[in-house]
Write a structure and sequence with these properties.
It is a single chain. By secondary structure, the chain is α/β, with parallel strands linked by helices. The chain has a 9-stranded mixed sheet with strand order 7-1-2-6-3-5-4-8-9, sandwiched between helices.
Length: 190
């Protein structure tokens, strides 16, 4: 994990396992590394990255105060396969959110990913799935190496913590309630 932290602290990009699919990420404060993620994936710059951590308390500085509903969903589904799209705070750079006023936040239920977050100051990564745009997301260490291994600074081993292969549910919270942007592994009951 010292190597992971060293890479990230020097504008690096890593690939890692989560509870859903493999991801790639960098420190949210590194515009250079975020730009590399877009290049690596051939990703449209209009598609934002999301912020992930080992604990929602580290994500809160990046978002405006959360509604009662958002907090209830966090209590029930974090850590897990739910990405909540909420209003960002001034701490979230526009280069992460593609100039949108919202940001997706998630806490994966995966010990290896949590250990990566614990190895860095701030505990937060700007992330997206480990694949080229419009291609299937990597599900294993071997697929990650094959898809993007030569493009990132490090593919972190999963240490037996496997991805389940089902995408996270992406849900937006607004004054009108919940909007499902992508139905994934979590079925919201509200």
């Amino acid at each position: 994990m010292d190597r992971v932290a060293d890479i990230l602290n020097n504008d690096g990009v890593i690939a890692f396992v989560t509870d859903t699919v493999w991801g790639i990420g960098c420190l949210p404060t590194s515009k250079k590394a975020v730009e590399r993620i877009y290049e690596i994936k051939h990703r449209d710059t209009k598609k934002p990255l999301i912020l992930m951590s080992d604990d929602d308390k580290y994500l809160r500085k990046y978002v405006k105060p959360l509604s009662i509903l958002a907090n209830e969903l966090i209590q029930k589904y974090f850590p897990g396969a739910l990405t909540l799209v909420v209003n960002k705070s001034d701490n979230t750079p526009d280069y992460i959110t593609s100039n949108l006023q919202t940001v997706g936040i998630r806490v994966p239920n995966n010990k290896t990913f949590a250990n990566i977050c614990k190895s860095i100051e701030g505990h937060v990564l700007a992330t997206t799935s480990a694949n080229l745009s419009n291609e299937p997301a990597a599900m294993t260490y071997e697929e990650t190496i094959k898809y993007i291994g030569d493009k990132v600074d490090l593919v972190v081993e999963d240490y037996g913590e496997k991805a389940q292969g089902r995408a996270s549910t992406v849900a937006g919270i607004s004054p009108k309630g919940i909007k499902i942007f992508r139905q994934g592994d979590v079925m919201l009951d509200f």
